[in-house]
Amino acid sequence: MRIEYCVLRTTHDAIRNTINVNASKVVHIPVLAETLAEQINLPPDGVMVDATIGQGGHSLLFGKILGPGGVIIGLDVDSTAIRSAQSILKGLVCKVILVHSNFAQITEQIRKQGIEQVDFILADLGVSSAQLADVEVGLSFQTNMPLDMRIDKRLKTTAADIVNTADEKSLADLIYKFGQDRASRRIARFIVQKRRAEPITTTGQLAAIVCKALQRPGQKPKRRIHPATRTFQALRIAVNNELENLKKLLASAPQLLKKNGFIAVISFHSLEDRLVKSDFKKNQSQGIYRVITKKPIAPTRQEIAANPRARSAKLRIAQKLVE
């Protein structure tokens, strides 16, 4: 089914209307969508790259204001997400190109489509609700799942591989570097002790080990988050090479954006946000970007109430100033 294209009053009105009408159709609620609508104006024939297409929520919103001459290129390492996005976006009148690819290859994938430059690059770095619930992905400690964590199943190394083979120091360094957990050495020690008795193969096993490592006799837990959160984050980052891939995306953007084009990144932890902040600041000092968000934009209380997963989101936006 195709939706007939009509001239909408403004980009902002179009996207706000789409949020209201389509919120129930998208399992993963797009974070900070209305804020993006207020900051980004796409021409009807614009080219947008959704570097993390997910289930198509953000692209659906922006696709509503693109006409037949507009193009959305959606990338994702999750083949299931690609199929979901295809279903969600099928009614748009703009051209939609979906590619099973990591955004680290953004330049190569855009060039394959015969496109040199684009108007807008968006990267929502969050893990989707569908991915957290997917037993085959193995990201959640709320449910006992195989300890995998590969969002891209083409990758070879799983979280179980790391947990069961890395030496204690390497494990502690990984948990501290990517999880920022000060108890990383103690957690690593408990993991190594436990795996001597039996391999650690499920998320439930690992979460229980971390909880035990952080349990102090006679002390009440002070953590506002689950004790295993940082360890799971560290392993997910390592398995999917997330920070290195983000660096490649940020390095590619200045050459891919048209003059006055935008790049917007939604991050969910300080390691990602720090990389984005540093890159935008560097490009601004060189006269390439104008940083629109002097400070990262966070979700409102109303958005967090409607979508609790949005609570740690931070949005940064920059605009390219030169040809």
Q: Could you explain how this protein is built, in words?
A:
This protein has 323 residues and is α/β, with parallel strands linked by helices. It folds into two domains: 199 residues, Rossmann fold (3-Layer(aba) Sandwich), CATH 3.40.50.150; 108 residues, DNA polymerase, domain 1 (Orthogonal Bundle), CATH 1.10.150.170. The longest helix has 16 residues. It starts with 10 loop residues before the first helix and ends with a strand. The N terminus is likely disordered.
Task: Output the keywords.
about 325 residues; alpha/beta; Rossmann fold; DNA polymerase, domain 1; 2 domains; seven-stranded mixed β-sheet; about 45% helix
Q: What's a quick, concise take on this entry?
A:
This protein is α/β, with parallel strands linked by helices and 323 residues long.
Spell out the helices and strands N to C: HHEHEHEHEHHHHHHHEHEHE
User: What is the CATH topology classification name of the largest domain?
Assistant: Rossmann fold
Largest sheet: 7 strands, mixed
Q: How are strands sequenced across the largest beta sheet?
A: 3-2-1-4-5-7-6
